[in-house]
Specification:
10 strands; zinc-finger; elongated; metal-binding; about 10% strand; three-stranded antiparallel β-sheet; 13 helices; Herpes Virus-1; zinc ion binding; E3 ubiquitin-protein ligase TRIM56-like; mainly alpha; single chain; about 55% helix
Length: about 400
């Protein structure tokens, strides 16, 4: 495709991750994840006061009027409309009907302000009428050749949601939201509110968000390493668990049938304890991966809006982006204890239970054979099992070889 924007923006970025279709009335959650309004409505239990993100499980307060009152993601909406229009023109087959008149003639151009396809007659009217002054009309040929300013198309100034038709030209530093001139007089007036021109403030907002992106990216790298460490330690733990099970199987097979019950106890203990620890590490890794995914998607969203968003769009999302990225960093810091010390884990899992079981084995051996019992007596004081000394009990001169060899 000739248009660079179609190369830069992935299809996934323009697709709802619930329905996996192009966004329809996209809503932005506090974690910077975006979903279709209907998808979120289906996801919200009745009577709840907050909504849980389907991607990262972070909660966002639900407005009193429900999902419809959640923040509209105007950046994504404009992007979907722009990319969709370009695809229709560049990839399209057949004629596109005019959306500016009732004649439905074949469209030849598109107004990037109205987001309408226009026929030749409507293009002429569009360029002559005062009401359309400042609108950018691009022909299909120019769209296919890329001979127009894409940044202009993506950055048309929005109007105020409260005061119809008023352009967003100011930024309330007190409330951290973009406002129109009427807002500065009625709802965000001096001296209670600090107002600046959006154009002069936008660079400061972008620098602020860029700082948070850098900080969040750094912590995402930390979470990447922690996730890798947890995965590796989980594999090591599983391997050790398998080795212990194999050892127990081998040794208990050498015992007589009357200690078979002890073998089963040992295996059950090993599997149960290991499962608990594995589940704990799974939970730890799930949290780390969730925070990592949240930082990654938050950074992707913020980077995209910084690169392609208008000043007003950056300003509109500024507070939410900064809070989300900062919260992600705070969550990252709370994971410092998530990579466990396996030395302590192994000691906790096996030491007490193995000592108890070995005491039972000793009692069985006493009953089984006086000679073996005498050998077992000589092993007293050697049953202190920890991760460090578990494999060090190799002195065959002081223990029954049939049971303890290679243990």
């Amino acid at each position: 495709m000739s248009s660079e924007i179609l190369k830069d923006i992935s299809d996934e970025f323009l697709e709802c991750q619930v329905c996996f279709r192009t966004y329809s009335r996209p809503k932005l959650l506090g974690c910077l994840h975006t979903f279709c309004e209907t998808c979120l409505s289906d996801h919200v239990p009745e009577g709840t006061s907050e909504i849980t993100c389907p991607s990262c499980s972070q909660t966002t307060p639900l407005p009193q009027d429900g999902v419809s009152r959640l923040k509209d993601d105007s950046f994504i909406s404009n992007l979907v409309a722009t990319v969709g229009a370009k695809k229709r023109v560049i990839e399209g087959t057949g004629n596109i009907p005019c959306e500016g008149c009732e004649d439905k003639k074949t469209a030849t151009s598109r107004c990037v302000v109205c987001n309408d396809f226009l026929c030749r007659s409507c293009v002429t009217a569009h360029r002559k009428m005062k009401v359309f002054r400042g609108h950018l009309v691009v022909s299909f040929d120019d769209m296919k050749k890329g001979l127009f300013d894409e940044s202009t198309e993506l950055k048309n100034g929005p109007t105020c949601d409260i005061h119809e038709g008023e352009k967003i030209r100011f930024f309330c530093k007190t409330c951290e939201i973009p406002v129109c001139h009427n807002c500065t007089v009625l709802d965000h007036s001096l001296p209670k509110h600090e107002i600046s021109r959006l154009k002069s403030t936008s660079e400061d907002l972008r620098r602020d968000i860029l700082h948070h992106i850098n900080e969040a990216t750094r912590h995402k790298s930390i979470l990447d390493r922690k996730s890798h460490d947890l995965e590796r330690k989980k594999a090591d733990f599983h391997k050790k668990h398998e080795e212990i099970c194999h050892r127990l199987e081998k040794k208990f097979e050498e015992l007589a049938q009357h200690i078979d019950q002890l073998k089963q106890k040992a295996l059950e203990m090993t599997n149960t304890k290991a499962a608990i620890k594995m589940k704990e590490m799974d939970t730890m890794k799930e949290k780390v991966d969730s925070y990592r995914s949240r930082l990654s998607s938050g950074c992707t969203y913020a980077e995209n809006i910084l690169t392609r968003g208008s000043d007003a769009e950056v300003a509109a999302a500024f507070h939410q982006m900064r809070e989300s990225l900062s919260e992600g960093v705070r969550c990252s810091r709370r994971t410092e204890q998530y990579v466990p010390d396996l030395t302590t884990v192994w000691a906790d899992v096996y030491e007490m239970e193995l000592n108890r079981l070995l005491e039972e084995v000793r009692e069985v051996l006493w009953r089984e054979d006086d000679e073996i019992a005498e050998m077992v007596q000589r092993t007293e004081g050697t049953f202190k099992f920890t991760v460090e000394n578990f494999t060090s009990l190799q002195d065959t001169a002081s223990r029954p070889t049939f049971f303890f060899n290679n243990f």
